[in-house]
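Dear support,

I submitted the protein below through the web form. The confirmation email said the job was done, but the results page showed an empty box. After a refresh the structure appeared. I'm attaching both so you can tell me whether what I see now is the final result or a partial one.
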Amino acid sequence: MTTIRLPDEAATARLGEAIAPLLRPGEAVLLEGPLGMGKSTLARGLIRALAGPDEDVPSPTFTLVQTYETDPPIAHFDLYRLERPEEAREIGLDEALDVGAVLIEWPGRLGGDLERILGPDRLTISLSEAGVGRDATVSGVGIWAGKTARMLEGWND
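What the results page shows now:
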């Protein structure tokens, strides 16, 4: 687990950009933190790194999921409005993992055993307030245990 400083919105988007080239089908990126911490900004940076800088990347707060035909395909889930963990399956979480990667805001709404639900390869980023900026606590399991170190090389220099 590593904590990095994100002094502004641009740094938050850059973290998403750093994750993008390492992402593979079947993997999950989980974004945690209170409202307004930059989860959608980080997601937008990641998706635009894969889809191109002009890609419209709306927050899926009301649609619950947005999909992008990138390489790998990515499905951006916002689970804030879920009432039951089973609803994630109903909106296509399993299928999204079968064909590509998933980016999940509010993963706590899944409840239970994340490895059973999402598989073994996950990157978790927890965003918290730190003065005018944010702190990002980054931890990876499965293949992301090694990828995390490579992704963050030189970040705090």
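Response: this is the final, complete result; the empty box was a page-load delay. The longest strand covers residues 122-130.
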